[in-house]
Specification:
Strands 1, 2, 3, 4, 5 and 6 form a 6-stranded mixed sheet that branches. With 182 residues, the chain is α/β, with parallel strands linked by helices. β3 (41-53) and β4 (58-65) form a beta hairpin. The protein has helices at residues 73-79, 96-104, 124-131, 134-145, 157-172, and strands at 7-16, 34-38, 41-53, 58-65, 85-88, 107-110.
Length: 182
């Protein structure tokens, strides 16, 4: 677990278990994986929710089925439990009810605004830190390519879960982690 510094970045990434054409014939994850949708399209599998600090160290990880929305109140409260400070996330995490509950616990969730929303006040530092959100996208890319947490040839669900957590552990031992200072 990384250092709790008060500034965090959150994101969710899809972990597909098979190609969309092979969903009906997938027997390994028949009753476990679900269809979900990202900005890149539909997938069949799971979602990995990730919270990292400004130094690129992993703080929290949550593994859910693919149909769980990023802005699910229950999932957000579990993911950000006992964190204090500010968390910067993408627009998928917008949920007013969760924002208010987390603010009462000492965590401010900062996201961009959607095109149909009113503009909200944000200070200059928050705008700059929100622009550094590309760091967590880089971490997701490293996890999928270098640490190989996503592949479609699993033979059992336990091995798939073990592969994801082994990739997360391998990420923590990398020499240079992405951070907002580079």
């Amino acid at each position: 677990m990384g250092w709790l510094c008060g500034l965090y970045y959150a994101d969710a990434t899809s972990l597909s278990v098979c190609h969309n054409r092979r969903i009906q014939s997938n027997k390994v994850f028949y009753d476990k994986a679900r269809r979900g949708k990202t900005s890149m399209g539909w997938f069949y599998g799971f979602k990995l929710f990730l919270v990292v600090n400004v130094f690129g160290e992993i703080i929290r990880v949550m593994f859910t089925t693919g149909n769980v929305a990023d802005n699910n109140t229950e999932q957000m409260l579990k993911l950000f439990d006992k964190l204090k400070g500010q968390v910067f996330a993408d627009r998928g995490f917008i949920n007013q009810k969760a924002f208010e509950q987390l603010l009462g616990k000492g965590l401010q969730v900062v996201t961009g605004t959607k095109s149909n929303m009113k503009n909200k006040l944000m200070n200059f530092n928050q705008k700059l830190l929100l622009k550094k959100r590309g760091m967590i996208e880089s971490i997701n890319d490293i996890l999928k390519t270098v640490c190989d947490i996503e592949h479609t040839r699993h033979r059992s669900p336990i091995n798939a879960l073990l592969n994801v957590f082994a990739g997360l552990c391998a990420y923590t031992f990398l020499e240079r982690l992405p951070n907002i200072f580079a």
